[in-house]
Amino acid sequence: MRHNAAVLLALTRAEYAARFGLAAGVAVAAWLVLLGLLAVATRARTPDPGPAVVELPGEESPAVVAMLTDGWEVGREAVPATLIDLAARKVLAIEGVGLDRFVVRLRPAPATRSDLAPYEDQVLDHVRRLASSDGTVPGEALTTGPEDESKHWWSRFEKAVVKDARDRGLSRGRWSRWMLGVLGAAALVPAILVALALVTAPKEDASDDDNPVGAFIGITAIGWFGLMAIPGKMRAERETPAGQQAAARWLGLREHLEGSGGFTDAPPAAVAIWDRYLSYGAALGVAAGAVRALPLGSESDKVAWTSHGGTWRMVKIDYPKQFPPGWGKPPALATLIGAASLLAGLFVANIFFPLMADTAGELFNETRDQGFDVVNLIGVAILAIPTTVTAVWLVRSALMLRAAVPDVFAKREVEGIVLRVRRKEKATWIAVDEGSGTRLKAWLVKPVTLDAAGLSQGSPVSATVSPHLGHVSRLAKPSDDRPDT
């Protein structure tokens, strides 16, 4: 009798655990929906430009202006814009010393300047640290160091700009206190249900010394903090009414500067002519020539400035790993892999798809005739995993074939400039700008092929590439027609 009672108790615990687990899943989904709705509602909104103006429409610094007019995010252009503004305010000087070459020169100044914001003083201190004995720094030497060091430098700069914007009443945090309160209170529900599901689950090694109350409290706390860490990762700045008005005014100035002849390509030394307009133009994204010539910060893998094609453009670079499937592979090999994967996927689908359909049908029929059964629901959930994986596998295989088969018979000749050469996870990537567009996919090449072509960043390049998979069959300098294998 005792044995039968224990079995019945275990079955009861299992049923309760399953029901609590199902309820926890629903509660987590509902909480994520709530988070998504609040995230959409709290996105920063950049206003429409105000009327075009000639005079500077406010007292905000270029770094703050860059933030207000770029979706309330501090863009990298804020650093060179700050440096140019220091030159316009006679704290520094920027001088041309040759074709597309510039030096930054320190001016005699007091040891401290109370009129500089912390992030402006940070840029000035960076120049002081790099300056040689004659007080100059070549423009190409202005980078903020290796990637880890540069990230720390940038983080300090970004936080100081955000603080200045908040102090001026132009920006605020994404999550208000009441939003965090609502999310926190709502997160208790799924956290408690998860804890109940785990605590009530039957255990083979259960003993009288177990403390279910302590386990329940601990699991609830872990679940709650885990959920609340998600909005913590989504922290950002958003507009205030005053910030919206200021952004509209500065966007009006951008309208004026965009129509000023020669402004876009003006070098940083042109600050002597344009004064603070050049620094604000850099902050507003319409002084590409000045920003490009001042490489403050570590070089970005995913963003590059290029003038190939006649005008300065910012290009975003992707390094495809999972999508499109088969990227960089020879078309014939990708066709074989895609066909084999598709056949294997169809074989597995022939097993799981009918089984999934039958189980789901049984769940529907039994629920209609006999009521809800947790066991059948768990069976459907378990079968859904391999079924979903198989479906994704089939789609991926079909997409690979769709790209690979045409590439077997098609090639594309490319002439351009090498924007980036990167070695990532034992793979060598090369990004080539053809003179148009603002987004490109880097190609995968063999290191020996790249070395044999003698290419580096900034080199002109001629290549033969498959249109859909980006497979490079020839890579050379334009004057070198030797094929690479």
Q: Can you walk me through this structure?
A:
The protein is α+β, with helices and mostly antiparallel strands and 485 residues long. The protein contains 14 helices and 13 strands. The strands form 4 sheets. A 5-stranded antiparallel β-sheet has the order 11-9-8-12-13. Strands 1-2-3 form a 3-stranded antiparallel β-sheet, covered by helices on one side. α2 runs antiparallel to α3 and α4 packs antiparallel against α5 (147-167). It is globular.
Mean pLDDT: 80
- Beta-strand share of residues: 5-15%
Global structural class: alpha+beta
Specify the helix fraction band: 40-55%
| Count of DSSP strands | 13
Keywords:
53% helix; alpha+beta; 14 helices; 485 residues; 3-stranded antiparallel β-sheet; 5-stranded antiparallel β-sheet
Write the layout of secondary structure elements.
Layout: H1 2-41, H2 62-68, H3 78-88, E1 92-98, E2 101-106, H4 118-130, E3 136-138, H5 147-167, E4 171-173, H6 177-200, H7 212-233, E5 237-239, H8 241-258, H9 271-274, H10 276-283, H11 288-292, E6 303-306, E7 313-318, H12 331-370, H13 374-409, E8 412-424, E9 427-433, E10 439-441, E11 443-445, H14 447-453, E12 460-465, E13 472-476
